[in-house]
Amino acid sequence: MKTRVRDEGCEKRGQARLFQTAHEKRGQARKDAKSGDRHAFFKPPKKASQSPFFALLAASLLTVAGLSLTRVPADPALIVMEAEAYAELVQPMRVARGDSTASGDAWVELPLGSGKGWRGKGGGRAAYRVDVPAAGRYAVWARAWWKDGCSNALFLQANDSPTLVFGNDAVFGQWHWVCSPSLQLGKGLNYIRFSNHSDGVRIDKLAVTNDVFYYPEGLADEITHFFDGFAGCDADNTGSWSFPAGRWRVVRNPGGTSAALGDCLAQFDSGGGAARAGNPLWHDYDVRVKTMLTGPGTVGVIFYQAGENDFCRLSWELNEVESALSLEQVSAGRTKVLCRQTLEGMTLDTWYDLAVTTGGGVVRAAMDGTESCRVDFECEPKGRVGLSATVSGAFFDNVEVVFKHEK
Fold first, then answer.
1. Strand order in 164-167's β-sheet?
2. By the 8 A CB rule, do 240 and 278 touch?
3. What residues contact 26, with CB distance under 8 A and at least 6 apart?
4. 240 has a pLDDT exceeding 90
């Protein structure tokens, strides 16, 4: 007789089946809520106490004179991101590709053989930056894929709070949305970490919200944030980036003044190089990048890249004569300078923040928070993001894209 080791994932298989039923009922409740019957959304399944989503609702209920009142934020927050837009990735957690049903054809996974974290015999984690407008209770939704009842959970931690078990539901071999218990987040920057509970698990997309009526379906909402600090990558694991030109590596921060922390992305081809990330359908966003030059040359932040030779670019040039910031439009490989502003006091071996903001038919460029260029917007506001460098010894870190989609 085969002896089964005591495992939280297997032990809760029966409870997980009940969770699946609750999952289906919540989907119908969501539709009822959209149609105007809000009370229908609060009809719990028989085993609602076993549902992580019910924990979020319970945390948002006030009992007054024996009546249950729902505390609904006046302006609910929603942050959506791809799982591969991590701030830190520690192996054996890795980025994988090859499933057309995954958002962006990529996901983060703990492959089979990664160990059993619940036994204390498995490593690997992925951390995400979440910037919320107000302190409060939030739910983390993840579009997940579980192998089976013994490979259907991750550990989840928000900042330094106690670690929770995420998952343990009974939907196997397909992408589906899973909700966390209620988490307390502070106003501003927070870190959410998924770590090894069991192997054979995948995460495709994340949604963080304080809206108790939010229920993602399919690929859910368009992403609202993309961030890559290159932390935890090795030289050949560059997450969601591709490199059509140059020699790019993830390296330890070489230092310099105002240095970024941890790892960063470097370009080492003397002939220059280009890197790109994101989706051709990305639109209406701002970009911010930290960069450093160790020798004379030019680095660029590419945005709204519609094709290989069609994009907009914020370029920073530093040489023996001057330093300048330029906004450029590249069409069919031909570069048109829209705005150019000389800068004072720029030096080599120093980290600087480059930022591009768009809106109202205008594009603005800034260095370390000081606006240097402003022009009428001439690019179609849709396409990938990217980086460029004309020399070896160009470094990049903390690439952040903030989307401004209408909800």
1. 88-90, 125-132, 188-196, 153-158, 164-167
2. yes
3. 41, 51, 53, 215
4. no
For 162, residues 6+ apart whose C-beta sits below 8 A from its C-beta are none
Of the candidates 221, 265, 261, the one whose C-alpha atom is nearest the C-alpha of residue 239 is: 265
Is residue 301 within 8 A of residue 318, CB to CB? The reply is no
Which residue, of 205, 221, 237, is where some domain finishes? 221
Burial tier of 156 (Cβ tally within 10 Å: 0-12, 13-18, 19+):
buried
pLDDT score for 224:
77
pLDDT at 17 over 60: no
Report d(CA 397, CA 145) in Å as an integer. Answer: 30
Q: How does pLDDT run across 161-175, given as a tens digit for each residue?
A: 999 999 988 788 889
Looking at the fold, whether 28 and 130 belong to one and the same domain comes out as yes
Does 273 share its domain with 214? no
Please report the pLDDT score of residue 49 as a whole number.
37
Phi-psi bin for 11: left (phi > 0), alpha (psi -120 to 50), beta? alpha
Which of the residue ranges 66-80, 375-389, 393-407 has the most confident prediction, judged by mean pLDDT?
Answer: 375-389
**Higher per-residue confidence, 353 vs 235:** 353
Residue 95 sits in a domain whose CATH number is 2.60.120.260
Shared domain for 318 and 365, answered yes or no, is yes
Domain end marker among 221, 239, 269: 221
pLDDT at 148: 83
Strand partners, 115: 122
The pTM score is: 0.61
